[in-house]
């Protein structure tokens, strides 16, 4: 990440965006924002907290499409990328790079449902880690999650590369998970190490106070490491009957959750991951080989889901253009180059198809809306 002359953040997306999207055959709009979800309960308490911080929740929520989200809903989900964007905007508005961590540590309104309730009655930490890993998708969709027992015990998870802003959601979930897992543990048995995907903040004092004295930032995965000696300590609140009943309930709730076909998510992630690692144009054939499919077979499976490889690539290209125009001061010509357009005219035509206006008009409108929101807060 670099700073422009006027201080606005510029996300240097060139390596992945250019490699992913240069030369793609573009034909239709895609959609990545709703692929990964977080429970509506995650919003509970945020409006009041932001109000205390002098930030207008409604204006920020409207900006990211969450204005109508019910923060008290018990059976619905919102787009994780929108939630992550909301927290980042709140962080900027409050001028607090640790806003989500501070909010979570002070959250007295949070009702996070049956998952933490289940963890309250586990027999020990070992079972708690396995239970959180098993039912994490009731709280939040992650790309993958695992628990490893090797002397110590490590809970590990990462967000999909389709989620473009991870700093605040990383802080929030790391704080929640540590809180849920240590309910019945003495302080001496708290995590011995925590690794976070988020960038290093200017001050890590709050992270060290709430999470662990041993911290690493900008990691490939999030990890919470507990000492092996704490795994089998009996939980004084353990209740075998309540725990089993809540596990059965969580299993039923997981089966009722509806997700997009996995092949769509896998292709989107492959496009991003391959571009980031290989740093070269990504083709249908290349992605199909990585997924163990023929190009024709992958086309058929995507068609059955109502989409195509070109649709998905176009959606990623559109999302990258949106971030560049809203969050950087890069010239339109530079954005066009980074996204692989052969001319500004081609980029302008694509932007009109995506946003209903030219790149310059879209940027100007977004800046005006942002300034108007600040004036109301």
UniProtKB/TrEMBL annotation:
GO terms of molecular function:
DNA-binding transcription factor activity; transcription cis-regulatory region binding
Q: Which SMART domains match?
A: HTH_ARAC
Tell me the keywords, alphabetical order.
DNA-binding, Transcription, Transcription regulation
The cross-references to InterPro entries, in alphabetical order and at most eight, read: AraC-type_N (IPR032687), Homeodomain-like_sf (IPR009057), HTH_AraC (IPR018060), Tscrpt_reg_AraC-type_HTH (IPR020449)
Q: Recall the taxonomic lineage recorded for the source organism.
A: Bacteria, Pseudomonadati, Pseudomonadota, Alphaproteobacteria, Hyphomicrobiales
Query: Pfam families this protein is in?
Result: Arabinose_bd, HTH_18
- The source's superkingdom equals Bacteria
The record places domain HTH araC/xylS-type at 268-365
Give the protein name, as stated in the record. AraC family transcriptional regulator
CC per GO annotation: cytosol
């Amino acid at each position: 990440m670099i700073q422009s002359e006027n201080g606005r953040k510029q996300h240097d997306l060139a390596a992945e965006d250019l490699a992913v999207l240069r030369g793609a055959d573009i034909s239709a709009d895609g959609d990545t924002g709703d692929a990964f979800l977080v429970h509506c309960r995650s919003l509970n308490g945020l409006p009041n907290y932001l109000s205390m911080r002098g930030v207008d929740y409604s204006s920020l929520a409207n900006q990211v499409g969450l204005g109508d989200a019910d923060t008290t809903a018990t059976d619905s989900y919102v787009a994780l990328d929108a939630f992550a964007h909301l927290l980042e905007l709140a962080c900027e508005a409050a001028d607090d790079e640790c806003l989500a961590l501070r909010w979570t540590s002070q959250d007295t309104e949070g009702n996070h449902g049956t998952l933490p309730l289940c963890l309250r009655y586990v027999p020990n930490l070992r079972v708690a880690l396995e239970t959180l890993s098993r039912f994490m998708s009731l709280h939040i969709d992650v790309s993958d999650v695992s628990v490893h027992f090797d002397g110590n015990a490590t809970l590990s998870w990462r967000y999909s590369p389709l989620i473009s802003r991870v700093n605040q959601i990383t802080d929030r979930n790391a704080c929640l998970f540590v809180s849920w897992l240590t309910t019945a543990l003495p302080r001496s048995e708290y995590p011995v190490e925590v690794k976070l995907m988020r960038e290093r903040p200017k001050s890590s004092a709050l992270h060290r106070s709430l999470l662990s004295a041993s911290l690493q930032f900008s990691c490939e995965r999030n990890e919470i490491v507990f000492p092996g000696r704490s795994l089998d300590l009996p939980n004084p609140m353990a209740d075998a009957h309540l725990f089993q009943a809540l596990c059965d309930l969580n299993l039923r709730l997981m089966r009722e959750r509806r997700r997009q076909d996995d092949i769509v998510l896998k292709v989107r992630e492959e496009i991003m991951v391959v571009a980031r690692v290989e740093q070269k144009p990504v083709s249908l054939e290349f992605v199909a080989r990585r997924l163990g499919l023929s190009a024709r077979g992958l086309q058929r499976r995507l068609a059955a889901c109502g989409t195509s490889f070109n649709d998905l690539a176009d959606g990623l290209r559109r999302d990258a253009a949106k971030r560049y125009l809203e969050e950087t001061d890069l010239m339109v010509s530079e954005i066009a180059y980074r996204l692989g357009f052969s001319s500004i005219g081609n980029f302008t035509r694509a932007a009109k198809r995506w946003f209903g206006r030219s790149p310059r008009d879209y940027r100007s409108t977004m800046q005006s809306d942002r300034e108007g929101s600040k004036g109301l807060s």
